[in-house]
Write a structure and sequence with these properties.
- With 145 residues, the chain is an alpha/beta fold.
- It has one domain: ATPase, nucleotide binding domain (Nucleotidyltransferase, domain 5, 2-Layer Sandwich), CATH 3.30.420.
- It contains five helices and five strands; from the N terminus they run αβββααβαβα.
- It has a five-stranded mixed beta sheet, sandwiched between helices.
- A hairpin with a 2-residue loop joins strand 2 (29-36) and strand 3.
- The chain is globular and about 35 Å long.
Length: 145
């Protein structure tokens, strides 16, 4: 097989054009972030029982605000803890459902994984997960007692 530079450019552009969703419901706030090309968009909601039950609606509303639908998402990054048991359980269940129904790959990270990162921010999560070789579609949960 011969690979031309234009083929490689296409593959690299496609990789950079991926739309990524970050979900963190382990803390006091539900945090959602979209990474589209070089742009980031985020929103937070109070993390309470009402919003646990509406996480899918919150995600769909957030996507709609950027003129997107779930099928536009290429990868999802979800916080597996430490943190709130209910928030982690609900976000992981939602992400697993997205994976099963829409075939969207997900990466379950822990903030403990990032303890050696000097400048942690949510927009860097995909790069850090790549750097740390976080496995896709594998759930490793860290609950707080």
């Amino acid at each position: 097989m011969i690979l031309f530079s234009s083929d490689l450019e296409f593959v690299l552009k496609k990789k950079n054009n991926m739309t990524k969703l970050i979900i963190d419901a382990a803390g006091k706030k539900i945090f959602l972030m979209l990474i589209i090309k070089d742009n980031t968009y985020s929103i937070t909601h109070d993390n309470n029982k009402t919003y646990y039950e509406k996480l899918t609606l919150l995600i769909n509303n957030f996507l709609s605000s950027r003129n997107l639908i779930l099928e536009n998402i290429n990868k999802i990054y979800v916080n597996g803890g430490p943190g709130s048991f209910a928030g982690i359980r609900n976000s992981l269940s939602t992400v697993k459902a997205f994976n099963l129904t829409k075939r969207i790959d997900y990466y379950c990270y822990s903030l403990i994984d990032f303890k050696h990162e000097k400048e942690f921010n949510y927009a860097n999560i995909p790069n850090i997960c790549d750097k740390l070789n976080i496995k896709k579609n594998l759930i490793n949960v860290v609950y707080m007692s």
